[in-house]
């Protein structure tokens, strides 16, 4: 998702393997330029994923997984302290929640609540069409002029 307008930009459907989300995120972010930031939830707070981002000079704006281990110790985060304490990180964490709007719309209106097809290729097609429909529904709201703005010619 791009943060300015909340549009879905890249999506991937994978089989559930435990690391599939991080693997998909790694492949989807290969095109990101140096200096970009990547916001993600606490499931992405893993050493290998964050290390890969840092090597590619992408700022890991990943929610810190502060869960407790079986022994009662707080889990160590892979997010560097200088990133977690920055203002940009705080802003990114607020924007990151907007991705849930896309998934929520897809589940309630887009038919993703219970997919009626079987097979990875068919699910990918349904998912892609649903995200395209979401973006199309968002576009008119983004194209409306802001209140108080006047178009050329005084109209």
How do the helices and strands line up, and which of them pair or pack?
Elements: H1 20-28, E1 37-40, H2 47-55, E2 59-62, H3 81-84, H4 87-96, H5 99-108, H6 120-143
Parallel strand pairs: 1-2
Explain how this protein is built.
The structure is a single chain. This protein is mainly alpha-helical and 155 residues long. The protein has two domains: 56 residues, no CATH class; 65 residues, no CATH class. Helix content is 43%, strand content 5%. A two-stranded parallel ribbon has the order 1-2. The longest helix has 24 residues. The protein is globular, with a radius of gyration of 19 Å. It starts with 19 loop residues before the first helix and ends in a 12-residue tail after the last helix.
Count the strands? 2
Low-confidence regions? none
SSE topology string: HEHEHHHH
Helix content: 40-55%
Strand percentage lies at 5-15%
How far apart are the first and last residues' alpha carbons, in Å? 34 Å
Quickly list its features:
155 residues, mainly alpha, two-stranded parallel sheet, 2 strands
Give a brief description.
The protein has 155 residues and is mostly helical. Helix content is 43%, strand content 5%. A two-stranded parallel sheet has the order 1-2.
């Amino acid at each position: 998702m791009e943060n300015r307008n909340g549009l879905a930009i890249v999506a991937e459907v994978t089989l559930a393997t435990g690391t599939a989300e991080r693997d998909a995120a790694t492949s989807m972010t290969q095109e990101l330029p140096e200096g970009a930031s990547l916001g993600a939830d606490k499931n992405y707070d893993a050493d290998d994923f964050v290390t890969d981002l840092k090597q590619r000079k992408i700022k890991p704006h990943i929610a810190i997984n502060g869960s407790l281990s079986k022994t009662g110790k707080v889990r160590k985060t892979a997010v560097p302290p200088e990133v977690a304490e920055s203002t940009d990180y705080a802003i990114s964490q607020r924007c990151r929640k907007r991705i849930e709007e896309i998934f929520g719309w897809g589940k309630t209106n887009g038919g993703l609540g219970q997919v009626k097809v079987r097979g990875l290729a068919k699910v990918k097609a349904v998912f892609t069409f649903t995200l395209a429909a979401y973006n199309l529904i968002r576009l008119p709201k983004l194209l409306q002029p802001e209140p108080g703005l006047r178009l050329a010619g005084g109209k």
